[in-house]
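Write out this protein's structure.
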Amino acid sequence: MLNVMLVDDEPYILQGLQVIIDWESEGFEIVKVCSNGREALNYLSNNDVDLVISDIKMPEMTGLELLKTVKNDKISDAEFVLLTGYDDFTFTQQAIRNGCLDYILKPVNEEDLIAILRKVSNKNRESIILRRDREKMEDAYLARIIRHVLNDKFADEDTDYLAKHLQLIGDMRFIDIEYVDRDLIVESESSDDYDMTQLQKQLYNACREVMKDSINHFTIDFAYDEDNYNVGFIYCENMATVRGMSETEFLNEFIRKIELLIIKPVRLLCGKKVSDISSLAESYESIRSLKSITGFHTTKKLYIYEEADVSHSNIVLCKNTIDEIVSAIETNDLPAIDSGVEKLYEELQGKEGSDLNINYLLFQLIHLASEQDDSVNQEEVIQYISEQTSEKALVRGSHEHLKKFATEYAAYLSELRKSISRGILADVENEIRKNYADNLSLKDLGDKYHINSSYLGQIFRKKYGMSFKNYLTNYRIKEASRQIINTDKKINQIAEDVGYKDSDYFIRKFIEIMGCTPSKYRKTNLGS
């Protein structure tokens, strides 16, 4: 409902306006009736009104004076419609020059009033669409700047922009917010990108609700792996300070409030603390190493980079046993992998040093992958390890988890030895061209073509310079842009046709890739 205020010094005119039409059926509600401009001004100063219908000639303050004061002092965004007679036309011209939307001749008839109300409704609807488009553009631009900073590829104007739009006070961290046991939350092996996007949106909205004063500090447009549906958070020291809390107290309270909203457990991976937004990439990158080791330890809800690096006095490095496990992985000897892992856990029983041992193992595995294929980028291998060690459905801290990872990594290395990338990538390209609107995933394609999905993602990224997920998104958006100019389909229908069930998500991706909203893209290209 749009709020309406009626202003006239003649009581019978006010009464007549209230009953001449069914206001509610037109989408309006009369919230105030005033007998002069001064009374109306006082109300507008403290209340939201969408439309003011006012007589021109009134005591104390005329309708024209009311209009000028409201517009000049920016008291309200309400639209103005003035009631006028034929002999008031000079005043009416002045009113229109001062921002009056329209006028109605007295005596008011039903048809004229309804026509005015529908004009106001249409303008309001257009304003809402323009505002939402502008907000989406601003959100997309802010997300892009944050992504540039996280990837350490930014200009001075980027950090200046963030300084204006974020509350960057004190030291800061980049924090990865994710569901604990995400696979169990989805409860379906057939869950698709839409399901995960909805979960991500739920988490994103909850974070913004908890931190209403810092909503721009959250982003979902970051990803250091293929299967990322998490929420990123630029945390600043002042957020805890102003609440009289320590950093740990603030972050634990933040987790508690999010979980109350979404009724699902979450955890935070807090990157390295940095002193300036220009160094945020260091914090972002540090989450990779933090994430890689969390899969082998008892699940916590809060991981802080500096605390993960604390040394102990009673640390044991089981180098020989780890070297045996690495050798078994290299030869894909499954029995030897099982026995090696059992032996490692026996040696660590009752002793400290699991962090050191796991880090040593991961380091050796990265080196091993590079030996198999000297063109392998170590960051890509770290990415693979990060993905595989964050399996939510497995029991944390168990030797079974390590056995499973080691076995899968052995299979991964086996794929690295095969020279099959060219033929497989051609098949994958063909799949995208034919089935881009379906729920394509690397896992399904890997199963179809009998190749490890993580290795497939690695060689895909190497050839195209982007992840499979981003490549598919780009292909879908390009197809959508073609349909937007060549068909008269509605935007929602086009979104569905190219594989998006969520039109808001589609619009956000379209803006990110094409630089404008779908409706503006259609208008610009059809008008040229």
